[in-house]
Design brief:
By secondary structure, the protein is an all-alpha fold. Helices cover 82% and strands 0% of the residues.
């Protein structure tokens, strides 16, 4: 077991999988298939199957294991509940969000009843459910759940516990998403101070919080503080992670956004271009981060009045996102809205209106009528209609 655990810890997943298969064969012969140790090893094998890319095999293993645990241990046994949580996490990993959302809702009810509201596993499931609610646009439901989780984790684990701070970070992300940047700033400042004290200046979680706080400050118009924080975070990530690490490149992109917001279009464009070049070199042509970089660069071109280049890049980004992510993915819908806005800026109102209308229909269906992105597109479409009337 120790050799298998060592292999798993070092991410040598295939080696670990082979070792656990041998362990399972031996355990099954000596202990019997119903022994808790055998059930635990089967759970680990299902986990490793997913890590080696065999997600369908992993799902089948979890489902067979869950059926046996239901019969041997009962539906309310903590081990059975944990396997349900693991299986639902795999559904999320596979992109089966609707099924995972329903299962997390049912699992949370059962864990609250069996384990209690404050049990760590219950709070983990609640946190996962909140993430799925955000994914489907139920931001209010996610906020209420995150606030409850945060209060419970503060009471049970303490203000500085990593899980408490992770929940606080989730809540701050929600506040940013709904435009409450001042409350997000206050929360992120507290998280950053605690993570610096507990984890150190260069810990990945500390740097992630610093990046989030810079985003809050940028959105609040405090460009100087945002710039200083982004520059410090970028320097630290370059030193700790290297120039081409995805987190380093994400920070470079954030700093470019700060320059862009502050009206420093030249600096923003140069940094966006450098970040895009690095991402294309490191990640490959159609990686989501590359598509984000292209969209950001297109926005910088548009802000600098380089509409022809912006439109060309927006069109290429939309085409790639439709191909890679699908027609109705939220990022695809953002690309469609961005392109419509660029068409409008270029005076191509007919094309802009047609694209806004299609985007609005999709956003209302996928995100909901009251989602912030839906409201922005509706407002942009109204302005395009008004401009078209003015041209008649």
């Amino acid at each position: 077991m120790n050799r298998a655990a060592l292999a798993a810890d070092s991410k040598q997943w295939q080696t670990a999988e082979q070792l656990y298969e041998a362990v399972l064969s031996s355990q099954s012969k000596t202990l019997g298939k119903s022994h808790p140790s055998v059930l635990n090893t089967r759970n680990l094998l299902a986990f490793l199957s997913a890590r080696t890319g065999n997600e369908l095999e992993s799902l089948s293993q979890y489902e067979e294991l869950l059926a046996d645990e239901m019969q041997i241990l009962g539906p309310d046994h903590p081990i059975t509940l944990m396997t349900r949580q693991d299986r639902t996490g795999l559904l999320t990993q596979m992109g089966h969000y609707s099924e995972a959302l329903v299962e997390y809702e049912h699992l949370l009810i059962d864990e609250r009843r069996v384990l209690g509201d404050d049990h760590p596993s219950t709070l983990t499931t609640a946190s996962n459910l909140a993430a799925h609610l955000r994914r489907v646009g139920d931001f209010e439901g996610a906020r209420l759940l995150d606030e409850d989780i945060l209060a419970r984790r503060r009471a049970v684990l303490g203000e500085d516990h990593p899980d408490t701070l992770a929940t606080a970070s989730n809540l701050a992300a929600h506040l940013r998403r709904v435009g409450d940047f001042e409350r997000a700033r206050l929360l992120d400042e507290d998280i950053l101070a605690r993570r610096r004290a507990v984890l150190g200046e260069d810990h990945p979680d500390t740097l992630a919080t610093a990046s989030n706080l810079a985003d809050d400050l940028r959105r609040l118009g405090d460009f100087e503080r945002a710039r200083l924080l982004d520059e410090d975070t970028l320097a630290r990530r370059r030193a700790v992670l290297g120039e081409d690490h995805p987190d380093t490149l994400a920070t470079a992109s954030n700093l470019a956004a700060t320059y862009d917001s502050a009206g420093l279009s030249g600096e923003a464009t140069r940094l966006y271009e450098a970040t895009l070049d690095a991402r294309e070199r490191v990640l490959g042509e159609d990686h989501p981060d590359i598509l984000t970089s292209r969209s950001n660069l297109a926005h910088a071109y548009q802000a600098a009045g380089r509409l022809t280049e912006a439109i060309r890049l927006y069109e290429a980004t939309l085409d790639a996102r439709e191909r890679v992510l699908g027609e109705d993915h939220p990022n695809t819908l953002i690309s469609r809205s961005n392109l419509a806005h660029a068409y409008q800026a270029a005076g191509r109102l007919t094309e802009a209106i047609r694209l806004y209308e299609a985007t609005l229909d999709a956003q209302a269906r996928v995100l909901g009528e009251d989602h912030p992105n839906t409201l922005v597109t509706r407002s942009n479409l109204a302005r395009a209609y008004h401009a078209e009337e003015g041209n008649k």
